[in-house]
Specification:
Layout: H1 2-20, E1 28-33, H2 41-47, H3 49-64, E2 68-69, H4 72-77, H5 79-86, H6 93-100, E3 105-116, E4 119-130, E5 136-143, H7 152-161, H8 164-181, E6 183-190, H9 206-216, E7 220-226, E8 230-238, H10 246-261, E9 265-270, E10 273-278
Parallel strand pairs: 1-2, 1-3, 6-10
Antiparallel strand pairs: 3-4, 4-5, 6-8, 7-8, 9-10
């Protein structure tokens, strides 16, 4: 009897602790077309009527499934800013756009209207990707039934609905694993007058101190592009509770520069991207 009582008490406290853990919010999703013939997603969403129709169909279905969508209109409105942000960066353009929109996931698609005898059908290829890294999380193809109609929006909506359950499952699977693997961010350190491997008075080197700090404050990380004056950690997977926003992680890095490295820096956050620049 005593053993059973202790077991019940242990189960109660285990449940109480679990109940106190912060709940993950819904992932924020953005829908983007694949670039075609060198035409970027922003231009396609602004000028291509078939792309506009398909985006609207996908968004409508995702909203019906109670998912949170990032602001596409703001992306399009800030097209020049986003293009300048991506200039010179060796990164997936749609991942950069999704990150700029503060999305967690982007659904990338291409669409075809296929003529079949007297009818036509919509075929939409989907890729589900992680916004910060462009890592493919899943894929699928939705086809509508062949229909002698001029309602392209209806054909696209049908194609989306025929594949959305698979897409939803891929999104859910990724989001359920987020607490285990961490939330991805991109950290770029860019100096003008200082080399990233400069030696400090302590005998340590800037890049060594940075990497040690990133290692101790992340679940996993990978070093990306490195030059004499620039180092990128892409991605850095961090605890989603401790660092629930990139700005919080960025402020901690700023403290490292101020207190340990003795350097004044400028901190800039754009979506999932953290950029540290040396102040003159």
């Amino acid at each position: 009897m005593k053993f059973i009582l202790l077991l019940l008490v242990s189960m109660f406290f285990a449940h109480a602790v679990k109940a106190q853990e912060p709940m993950l919010s819904q992932p924020k999703i953005v829908v983007l077309p694949k670039s075609l013939g060198g035409v970027d997603a922003l231009t396609l969403m602004k000028k291509d009527s078939l792309v506009q129709t398909t985006v609207a169909a996908i968004k409508r279905v995702l909203v019906e499934r109670k998912l949170e969508l990032a602001d596409l209109e703001q992306l399009i409105g800030n097209a020049d800013f986003n293009r300048s942000l991506m200039a010179g960066l060796n990164a997936d353009p749609n991942a950069m756009l999704a990150s700029a929109a503060d999305a967690d996931i982007y659904v990338e698609f291409d669409v075809q209207i296929v003529q079949e005898g007297r009818g036509r059908k919509a075929k939409i290829n989907f890729n589900v990707k992680e916004a910060a890294t462009a890592k493919v999380l899943g894929a699928g193809t939705g086809n509508s039934d062949s229909n002698p109609t001029n309602d392209i929006g209806g054909l696209c909506a049908s194609a989306v609905n025929n594949e959305i359950d698979r897409i939803m499952e891929q999104i859910r699977s990724y989001w359920d694993d987020l607490p285990k693997y961490g939330k991805p961010m991109i950290v770029t350190i860019s100096f003008q007058n200082t080399k990233v491997n400069s030696e400090l008075p302590s005998g340590q080197y800037i890049d060594e101190v940075l990497e040690d700090w990133i290692k101790n404050n992340s679940k996993t990380y990978r070093i990306g592009t490195t030059t004499d004056n620039t180092i990128t950690f892409s991605p850095v997977y961090v605890d989603h509770i401790k660092y629930d926003s990139p700005s919080k992680f960025g402020r901690e890095i700023r403290k490292l520069f101020d207190k340990t490295l003795g350097m004044k820096i400028k901190l800039q956050n754009t979506g999932k991207s953290i950029r540290i620049e040396e102040q003159n």
